[in-house]
Amino acid sequence: MSNASTNKFFRGDDQSEGSSQGRRQYNEDNNFGLDDNNASEEPQYNSRNNMSGNRGGRRNDMSRGNNNYSRDMPNRGDDNYSRGGGRYQREDGKQKMEYYSNKSYQQNNADVSLYANDEDSEDLIIPVENFEDFGFNEKLLRGILGYGFASPSPIQQKAIRPFLAGRDVVAQAQSGMGKTATFCLGVLSRINTSKNEPQAIVLAHTRELASQIEMVFRALGGLMPVRFNLSTGGNMVRENISALRAKDKPHVIIGTPGRILDMYNKGAFEMGGIDMLVIDEADEMLAPGFNGNSSTNFQEQVKHIVASIPKEAQIGLYSATMGQDFFHTTKRFLNAPVYVLVKSDELTLEGIKQYFINVEHQSNKFDTLCDIYRALSLNQIIIYCNSRKSAEILSEQLTDNNFGVSCIHGKMAPGDREMVMSEF
After folding, report:
1. What's the rounded Cα separation, in Å, for the pair 243 and 249?
2. I need a labelling partner for 403 at 20 to 30 A (CA). Which of 102, 287, 290, 358 fits?
């Protein structure tokens, strides 16, 4: 494999409607081959969420027997990336670049020019203060009200309109600010229910997150004739294929990159009708060797998906944190994106207090934690550890001290994890 083609992102070059040519087997020269370790069907969990298990590599072979599928990929140098195409072109045919006017945004010391918006993009992120003003249909509005939303959150006010306009979007928001509903509403409003084919793919880095996203989709779009499919590890492959090949095909596929690639590779669905690709927790999904472990390199899997969708398809990236490497990576495959960012010092939600306690020695940590636990009058507490082993040891210590506690991490069986979450 050529070193000159490492870390390349392309959108599909041959994606005319009704054509499957160029969507199955990837050109090794362009670094689209999944390694055995990088094609894990079920991505593993980030240790910061008490999850660090690895199910081992399961090969997603990017070919289908002797079928003659090939992609005509141009030969490009290291820094020459195809950023897709067709929708946002200047009259001279060159890609329109955008420059951001508010230099108060410093995303982890990233160069401000990396997330620049032009005047038109600035107009698109003018806040919309009422859901009725987005132009949603009546059934979607009723779903929004039924979900409990009275008015858009700050990220919803700014990030929904650019998506409705068909633009690529990079949106940053604090946890708990309605980020998931932001892209769910954008996708639901753009689905053409008269078409019997998948039109949107939503990627999540864990099956639990994918399941949560699916629930939000179904809650908001429950009154609409939109069909959804959840494609994650833990679901039977045969049943997954049957659901994707059903007479009434899903409009939106939500899942983890490994399983979605596996389904596509098995011919369970086609990418030709995909109009939208959404990547949640995009900073982690696009990081090479996520969490320092090459067997969970989501970036390689995302590359395959980006290369397989039509080059004019819309892409939305959503995350709470974004650094310079993230912006450099996204420049390689986004089409004149609209950036909806928040200041770094505003990434913590108002009303949340944060404290740092210097326990001096590791041996003092457990006693300090117990003191805090006893001092606080709370029904439920979540404690995050930086490794599976630490989570298990802490769980045992708390249990021995008569605290009611459950432990969850990536080495546990899916059913056990689901039971712990249900009990919580």
Report:
1. 7
2. 358
